[in-house]
Design a protein that fits this description.
Strand order of the largest sheet: 12-13-9-8-1-2-3-7-4-19
Radius of gyration: 26 Å
Shape: globular
Strand content: 25-35%
Oligomer: single chain
Distance between the termini: 32 Å
Largest sheet: 10 strands, mixed
Number of helices: 13
Number of domains: 2
Helix content: 25-40%
Number of strands: 19
């Protein structure tokens, strides 16, 4: 039997400190928390940086390090620094070292690195050990070389190897969200289907409860299944909140693919038991003939500049789409005539903030707002070109009239200068799996001592 405490869906999101304290009273065998995902787009993997602030990350990690020290159990974080690139593992190590010094803790830390050298990926490609996932993306040597960062998603086996070092803290690069939770129950021979299913339910912390923002939950694994329960006051796990989480970020509500196999919950049963707990059994783990890990890669897709103008005059607000479309046509013609640019040299979008900005042509509520922000998004292959195109847009966004006989209007720019250079933007360009002969062959494991106690 194994009890896993999950403080939150991700480090940096916050959690209920009182609920965490209540969780410690249950004497968990391990504390496991996720550090990121691809939810926020390709920038973080492309740049190898964290979405969450360092200060918020440090303060939450401080609380968890204190909790770990009080219990004497391992503390594990997966996908360090949002994307799990090697630089983000080192970023978390730096924070951990600072806290060890401040808290006077002597620690053994295991570092699991997930970044992949392009040479390894290209060799696997030649050997036929890489396969597409859906949606399929083209892969070739040129695509691999264009990636600024490539990571492989670690599974339970790699986390188990890190725990086997006897580390107090495991800082893991990119992992599946479930691996950090399932690893110890699997190592202790708890029910395999229950271990993976319980890990899936717990991956986002209290999202499987009636108080999703409270963060802290615990999962008790055994030889037949698992029991999940919240730690926050007035929070409940119900059969609905627990079973529904299989739909979260998952194309199939009954099947979940992981390194080395897949989880099948089609025969799982959910029973509401005492103390707001839900008991789950009947989940099944199916081992694959081959061991595969997912690959994620990101690369620079161009450079971007923004310009924004505000429309408040009623006639312009009502005709905002026509106004913006006319500007776009005129600017494209000007760029071709004056700079020799064709449509393939840049991308230009005028997005109406407050009117169809999110859904575009799929919007069904055609209400006229009081004011509209017109955000021009310019993307080009260099920052200098993106800036130049944005400057060409500037006079149109400031003074363009609806009709030729109208006096020139003046609109508001919220910033000066009006052009905002965003720098490089990134795109995901790998969505594949790679076959491994050994689960550790694509990962690097190191240990360091932080002797500050």
């Amino acid at each position: 039997m194994t009890l896993v405490l999950v403080p939150s869906g991700a480090l940096g999101l916050g959690f209920d400190s009182k609920a965490l304290a209540a969780g410690l009273d249950h004497k968990p065998d391990i504390i496991a928390i996720d550090g990121g995902s691809t939810d926020s787009g390709p920038f973080y993997l492309g740049s190898g940086s964290s979405k969450y602030s360092r200060s918020a990350t440090k303060e939450e990690w401080r609380e968890l390090m204190i909790a770990r020290n009080a219990l004497g159990v391992p503390l594990v974080i997966g996908t360090c620094g949002t994307c799990g690139a090697d630089a983000c593992v080192d970023w978390m190590l730096e924070i951990t070292a600072e806290l060890a010094q401040e808290l006077g803790q002597h620690l053994k830390v295991a570092l699991l690195y997930s970044s992949q050298p392009s040479k390894r990926i290209k060799e696997a490609l030649v050997q036929g050990r890489i396969a597409d996932l859906s949606p399929a993306l083209q892969i070739c040597d040129a695509v691999v070389d264009s990636c600024s960062n490539i990571v492989a998603l670690a599974g339970a086996e790699q986390i188990q190897a890190a725990l086997d070092t006897g580390a107090d803290i495991v800082l893991a690069g990119r992992t599946t969200d479930t691996a950090i939770i399932a690893a110890l129950p699997l190592a202790r021979s708890d029910h395999a289907g229950g271990a993976w299913h319980g890990a899936k339910i717990a991956e986002c912390g209290a999202l499987c409860t009636t108080r999703p923002r409270s963060g802290v939950i615990a999962v008790e694994f055994d030889d037949a299944g698992f029991t999940v329960f919240p730690l926050a006051k007035d929070a409940r796990c119900t059969a609905h909140t627990v079973s529904a989480h299989m739909l979260y970020e998952n194309a199939d509500p009954f099947i979940l693919h992981e390194p080395g196999g897949h989880l099948d919950v089609s025969q799982a049963g959910y029973e509401e038991v005492r103390d707001n707990r839900v008991r789950v059994s009947g989940s099944r783990w199916v081992t694959s003939d081959t061991y595969t890990v997912k690959l994620e890669g990101a690369r620079i897709a161009g450079y971007q500049t923004l310009v924004m103008a505000m429309l408040r005059d009623r006639s312009y607000v009502e005709a905002a789409a026509t106004w913006a479309g006319d500007i776009e046509r005129r600017v494209r013609t000007q760029l071709q005539d004056h700079m020799g640019l064709n449509s393939g040299d840049f991308d230009l979008e005028l997005r109406l903030i407050g009117q169809n900005a999110t859904l575009g042509e799929y919007e069904t509520l055609n209400q006229v707002p009081v004011e509209v922000g017109v955000m021009a998004i310019v993307t080009a292959q260099t920052q200098a070109l993106a800036d130049e195109i944005a400057k060409a847009l500037n006079p149109f966004l400031l003074h363009h009239p609806l009709t030729e006989d109208e006096e020139l209007p003046t609109f508001a720019f919220p910033f000066s200068p009006a052009e905002i250079s965003r720098g490089p933007i990134y795109e995901f360009c790998l969505n594949h799996v790679m076959v491994l002969d050994d689960p550790m062959e694509a990962f690097r494991l190191e240990t360091v001592d932080l002797p500050h106690g």
